[in-house]
Amino acid sequence: MKTASQIIQFTDCGIGESRFLEEALEGLKQQKKTLPAKFLYDERGSELFEEITGLQEYYPTRTEIAILERIKKELADLVGPEAALIEFGSGSSRKINILLQAFENLSVYVPIDISKEFLYESCLNLSKNHPSLFIHAIAGDYTVPITLPPLRCRKKTAFFPGSTIGNFNPEEASRFLDTAAGMLDKGDGFLVGVDLKKDTNILNDAYNDSRGITAEFNLNLLKRMNRELGADFHIDAFRHHAFYNEEKGCIEMHIVSKEDQTVTISSESIVFKKEESIHTESSYKYEAAEFQSLALKSGFAAKKYWTDENQLFSIHYLELIE
User: Fold this and answer.
1) What is the DSSP string of 89-127?
2) Which CATH number covers residue 99?
3) 0.85 exceeded by pTM
4) Is residue 232 part of a domain?
5) Domain membership flag for residue 99
């Protein structure tokens, strides 16, 4: 029997401290302060997000899992045997386990995630449940082009669950879809989870949970900057704020300064006015046709589309045609 070290290969194309610092300072020096959402997902951030996905208010995860369970046999027919399965943002094993159990003779599983510690732990756990599965994990930023290792397979299928596509604005989503298309060949598939537009109360509750886990997740970014970049954020001097922006069709997540203050990061002084915010993440919601139109611009044709009975969430199977 093969050991974990024999079935797991690990490639680290991750981002270093210098890039984190560069992008953080660039965002915080803007008139409207921002921080890239990808930096929310260090090891602790990934753990907190896993906790969020189990909250009663946070409907996307359980709804997507229910859809995947319902359509897994149909997906297996679409993907076919001896395929390579590439997952963008592979922090959790719950959804991928559904596919791994359904797909016949999968050639290789290629998870790509920015949090290498969390990714490696997930791969070890997966290898216990699927001892014959070959895994080539890639620690890196999947929003930029990544050269995949040589994959012996009949077909590649990419998987982007959790409505993470919504963390990009439409222009960024289009660039990401272009990047994904560059990793695939004509005829390859792309399975994408997309959150649907719905009642604003449902949306606002999902990002402002009663236990405050989402707030802790958001503020953890400041803790990470203190730890990794030597910043001196006083965490208690900031608060979490999330709301649905009707005009843009997205949830906006912010960290708000409770007072006038100055924060130092790598000898740079960042001044905050009271109630000034840092925009940390957006979560765009789509109508099904809106997303399919966006995907088509990157060469992906919509082949199948599924949703739940309450029209909360959708899963799209796309095929690269260009």
Assistant:
1) T---SHHHHHHHHHSTT--EEEEEES-HHHHHHHHHHHH
2) 3.40.50.150
3) yes
4) no
5) yes
pLDDT tens-digit profile of 203-247?
A: 999 999 999 999 999 999 999 999 999 999 999 999 999 999 999
E strand map for 14-93:
83-88
For the stretch 32-86, pLDDT in tens is: 999 999 899 888 998 999 999 999 999 999 999 999 999 999 999 999 999 999 9
H/E stretch holding 280 reads strand 277-284
What is the residue range of 316's domain?
4-8+55-199+287-320
Token readout for 295 is: 């995907």
3-state helix, strand, coil in the chain (%, to 5): 40, 30, 30
> Into how many domains does the chain fold?
1
Is residue 48 a part of any domain in this protein?
Answer: no
pLDDT tens profile 252-281:
999 999 999 999 999 999 999 999 999 999
Phi–psi pair at 285, nearest 5 degrees:
-110, 145
Q: Is residue 226 part of a domain?
A: no
Residues 6+ positions from 134 with CB-CB distance below 8 Å:
7, 107, 108, 109
270 contacts 277 by C-beta, under 8 angstroms: no
**Exposed, middle or buried, 289 (CB in 10 Å: 0-12/13-18/19+)?**
exposed
